[in-house]
Amino acid sequence: MSALNNGVRVRIAPSPTGPLHVGRARTALFNWLFTRANDGVFIVRIEDTDRIRSTEENLRSILTSLRWLGLEWDEGPEVGGPYGPYFQMQRLPLYQEFAQRLLRAGAAYYCYCTPDELTAMREAAKRAKMPFRYPGRCRPLTTKQRAAYEAEGRRPVLRFAAPSTGSTAFKDLIRGDITFDNTEIDDLVLVKSDGIPTYNFAVVVDDITMQITHIIRGDDHIANTPKQLLLYKALDASPPDFAHLPMVLGLDRAKLSSRHGATSVMEFAELGYLPEAMVNYLALLGWAFDDKREIFRKEELVQHFRIERVSKTAAAFSIEKLDWMNGYYIRQLSLKELAERALPFWQKAGLVPTDQVPTKTLTYIQKMIPLIQERVKRLGEVVELTDFFFKERLTYDSALLIGKGMTAAMTKLALAETKRVVENLSLFNSETLEIQMRSLAESLGLKTGQLFGAVRVAVTGRTVAPPLFQTIAVLGREKTLDRLTEALRLLDTLPSK
Questions:
Q1: CA gap 282, 69 in Å, rounded
Q2: What is the per-residue DSSP string for 428-473?
C-alpha cells in the first residue's frame, strides 16, 4: 500500500466528451468495489480540459449513469469535499503552481517549436523509420534566445525534461513488475500554449493534491504510468499504487463499438436492463470469485472483491449472457416491483398516461404482469409482449385467423361458438375458460391447437402471446367479446374456401 495512505482514497476521472460507456463503467465499478471493500473514499473528478467536446449534457449523462448503477461518490460534483474543486478547468491555478515548481527544479522547460517544425521532425523520423520523440531542441535555450522567440510572437508550451538514461519500474497490483526504459519516454508537453494542462500532468497534480492512494484504470494507460511516475519523482511526491484492468472487448475480440450494439450505460437503461443485473454482469468482466458462482448482490460483491482476483486477460462482453442475467433478476422481482419498473416503458410507448395513472389501469397491470414475468429478458420487451392488452382496436392480417387445416367457414363457426361460450360463462376465470374451450374443441371436432390458435389471434392480434386463458381472464369478458365480434367481421371479408 502506498506511503500516502492514511486510508484508501480512490478516484475515477471521466471526461464529459461523451456518455459513460461499458468499459469505463466497469472501471468505475471496480474502483467503487475496491473502495467499499477497504472502507475508503470514492471520488469522482471531471477531466473537462477538452473545451470543445466537453458538454453539460455529457456531464449529466455520466453522473446519472453512475447513480443508476448505484455507484454513489463520497467526494466530487454535487457532493463537494475537502480537496475540491473537482473539475480540472477550475484547478488551473494549481497546475500553474506545480509547473513553476518543475521549472525551478530544472525538470521542465519552455519549448518554442512551431507546429510546422514539429511536423518536419515527425516526417524526418518517419523517413528514418524511427519512432518520433521530441529531441529536446529547446532544452538548452538561453534567456536571450527565449526572449527572441517570444518577440517573434511564438507562444511556448511547457515540456517535461525526461531522463535519457536508466529505467522506470513499478509493481502493478494485477500484472506484477513492469519496467520501461527511459529512452522510450518523450519530453512530453505538460502545459499547452493556452495554459491548459495535458492529461499526464493534470492527473498527477490532481492525484497528489487529492491524496489518491490507488489508481485502478484500464490497461490502455500502462504506457502513461512511467511518465507519471517520473513526474511524481520530479515533484518529490510518493506515487500511489497502480492496478491496470484488462480491456473489455466484443465477442469477436475487437474493441467494443456501436456495431456491437448498445455501448453506453444509459442505452442499456433505456432498453430495460436492471441496474443490479448490470452491476453483477460488469463485475464478472475480468473478475471472478470462483469458477462457478455468477449471481452476486452488490453487497456480496463488496464482501468478496479483491484486486488480486482480477484477470490479466481481456474480458469479452456478451449481450446474450447479460440478457440471461437480466432475465434472472427480473424473475426475482415481486410482481408489484416489476409492474413499477415496467411502467415507464408503457408510458413511453403511449400505452399508459404519463401523469396520473388511473387506479383501474394499475390494477389491470397487476393482473397482466404474472403472464409475462417468465418471458421478459429486458423491461423494454413488456411493450411488445403486452401492447394488445391496452389497445382499443387490434390491427392484424385477418388471414392469420385461419390456422392449419382450417377454412374461413370453419374458423367463423369456431369463433362464433367461442363467443357464445364466453357470453354464457357464469364464472369468468382462466380455469373455467380452459375447461369450456377444451370441451368446445371436442364438440366441434377440432384439435385444441386449431381452436385455441384462432381464438388467440382474435383476442391478441398475434399468433404468439402469453398463456391464452389467463390472457382472456385479464382482458375481461367485455373486451374479449368485442374482439371476437371484430374477428367474425374480418372473416366475412375473406373469400370462402
A1: 10
A2: -SHHHHHHHHHHHHHHHT--HHHHHHHHHHHHHSSSS-S-HHHHHH
Signed CA dihedral, 393, 396, 399, 400: sign only: negative
Distance CA 229, CA 170 (A): 9
Structure confidence at residue 255 as a pLDDT band (50, 70, 90): confident
Whether 146 and 112 have beta carbons less than 8 Å apart is answered as yes
- Determine phi and psi for 137, rounding to 5 degrees: -60, -35
102-108: long-range pairs with CB below 8 Å, 24+: 102/158, 102/160, 102/190, 102/234, 102/235, 103/158, 105/234, 106/161, 107/160, 107/161, 107/234, 107/235, 108/158, 108/159, 108/160, 108/161, 108/190, 108/234
- Residues 101 and 232 sit within 8 Å (Cβ to Cβ): no
Q: What is the rounded end-to-end Cα distance, in angstroms, of the chain?
A: 83
CB atoms within 10 A of CB 325: 22
Q: Which residues contact 293 (CB under 8 A, 6 or more apart)?
A: none
Q: CA–CA distance from 267 to each of 19, 21, 258, 282, 285 (Å)? A: 10, 9, 11, 15, 19
**DSSP H helical segments within 128-162, as ranges?**
143-151
- Can the peptide bond before residue 85 be classed as cis, meaning omega within 30 degrees of 0? yes
d(CA 216, CA 326): 27
Q: For residue 288, give the H/E element and its range.
A: none
In whole angstroms, give the CA distance from residue 133 to residue 121: 9
Helix (H, G, I), strand (E, B) or coil at 273: coil
Residue 152 has φ and ψ, to the nearest 5°, of -75, -10
Instruction: Give the span between the Cα atoms of 184 and 170, in whole angstroms.
Output: 16
Number of other residues whose CB lies within 10 A of the CB of residue 313: 8
- Class of residue 324 by CB neighbours under 10 A (exposed 0-12, middle 13-18, buried 19+): middle
Q: What is the spatial distance between Cα 225 and Cα 14, in angstroms, rounded to a whole number?
A: 18
Closest CA to 130 of 196, 183, 94: 183
186: nearest Cα among 130, 114, 236, 120:
130
For residue 256, the SS3 value is coil
Look up residue 494 and give its amino acid: L
What are the angstrom distances between the C-alpha of 68 and each of 58, 72, 79, 273, 284? 15, 9, 16, 11, 18
pLDDT tens per residue across span 337-376: 999 999 999 999 999 999 899 999 999 999 999 999 999 9
* pLDDT tens-digit map of 7-66: 999 999 999 999 999 999 999 999 999 999 999 999 999 999 999 999 999 999 999 999
Q: CA 82, 88, 93, 99 torsion: positive or negative?
A: positive
Give the CA diameter of the chain.
109
> Hey, how many other C-beta atoms are within 10 angstroms of the C-beta on 235?
16
